[in-house]
Amino acid sequence: QAGLETDILGKDIRHFMELESTNDYAKTIAKDTTEGTVVVAEVQKKGRGRRGFDWVSPHGGVWISIVLKPSIVSADASRLTLVGGLAVVDSLKSIGLTPSLKWPNDVLVNGKKICGILTEMEAEIDRVEYIVLGMGINLNFNTEMLPEEIRDGSTTISDELGTYVDRLEFVRSLLYNLEQYYVHFKTQPFEELMERWIDSSDTIGRKVRIVTPSKMVDGRAIGISPSGGLLLQKNNGSTEEILSGRCIYI
Ligand code: BTN
Fold first, then answer.
1. What gap in Å lies between CA 160 and CA 165, rounded to an integer?
2. Nearest CA to ligand 1 atom 15
């Protein structure tokens, strides 16, 4: 189907011309669908970003959500965000770009955001029932399509390359790479993927400000914790694990 080279991902593909949000749709079918179901829309009317922000999703982009059912505890769910980032990085490299990962969920090219990842889950007690891994990749459209507030900090693949990219081919590559990393994730210790993530990241080693709903803390990003959090060396010398939050380079 769709010429995919995958065994798990994309056995069931739900394609829409328009959806409010692929993550929202995926969550409504997740319980009753097989692992690897892919939801993809040409346009999202109410695409969602992290922290309740809108995610502007015009024609030409890749707005995609994947239902995963790994046997993990909910505390480890954010590892999947890192896994998704690794797959996007490989697909971007294969079309000649030089991407970097910004903790927790951004993929940047030339310091500008080209992809955002929104991982959502449902858990029973603390076992994950399903994860919806939502990825928004700015592919074939001009940055001008984006609202002014985010235009300067964002970019698109076609703007970076100066040409359009075959969208189906890109999605095939993304699902292929994601499957490789996902199988690795399920069968091998997470440390290797963590190291890989750090290798592709421009966050580690930087001075950052972390903003959470309850606090703001400055320090140096020194690593990734086993559950996918950021290890922050604070200005007073102590180290803190940040499980989620907004990361600003300072
Ligand atoms: C972020 O950087 O804030 C995360 C953006 C995630 C956007 C994707 S697009 C496909 C999926 N459906 C959504 O509504 N959001 C995610």
1. 11
2. 48
